[in-house]
Design a protein that fits this description.
Number of strands: 2
Strand order of the largest sheet: 1-2
Radius of gyration: 25 Å
Structural class: mainly alpha
Number of domains: 1
Length: about 190
């Protein structure tokens, strides 16, 4: 938001570029899913699965490298899982240090392990592309996956909001059991 003031007139310009970035990202990821589906339906299943697997792994790698996705600092707001978050960060940094000191034979073994993980993920993408029966369903599934990638807290926050709104207010001193409700009806 920018503000300018000239001759007593205040002009506020508010851009909502973040919303456009989110929508554009979801559309782009949905489009990649739709392209992969179209390729798979036209006999290019192996290429489509490889393309989709490479897109997802590179997107995740770049999001972590740029700090857009990261391990939480200290667990939840109530202090839960603070030790786990610290452990995960420590394990990641120790692994990176260990990997940096590794001889070539260990780097080759790590590359082989990454390749096996990639091939397993690719097999999963091959299966997923065979499940979809409609290009719109494939695009929606890709956009859903994209929403989880760009905003991991989306569903947990939505669930907390829904459950928070649906909780019945507590009435102190009132009998809220089914028997208490029947007794109230008899008195009326």
């Amino acid at each position: 938001m920018s503000t300018s003031q000239k001759d007593g007139v205040v002009v506020n310009i508010q851009t909502q570029s973040r919303m456009y970035e989110i929508v554009a990202t979801l559309l782009a990821i949905g489009a990649v899913g739709m392209i992969a589906y179209a390729l798979a339906q036209n006999g290019w299943l192996e290429i489509a699965a490889t393309m989709l697997t490479m897109f997802i792994t590179q997107l995740m790698r770049l999001l972590f490298a740029n700090g857009l996705l990261r391990v939480p600092e200290g667990g939840t707001a109530k202090g839960e899982f603070a030790g786990t978050a610290g452990f995960v960060k420590t394990a990641i940094s120790e692994f990176k240090a260990w990997q940096a000191r590794s001889p070539i034979w260990r780097l080759s073994a790590l590359a082989g392990g990454y390749t096996l993980l990639f091939m397993g993920f690719r097999a999963l993408m091959t299966w997923a592309l065979g499940v979809f029966t409609n290009i719109w369903v494939a695009g929606a599934a890709a956009a859903l996956l994209g929403s989880l990638i760009i905003f991991p807290q989306l569903f947990s926050r939505a669930a907390k909001t829904v459950t928070g709104r649906l909780k019945a207010p507590s009435i102190e001193g009132a009998d809220t059991t089914a028997a208490g409700a029947v007794d109230d009806e008899k008195e009326a």
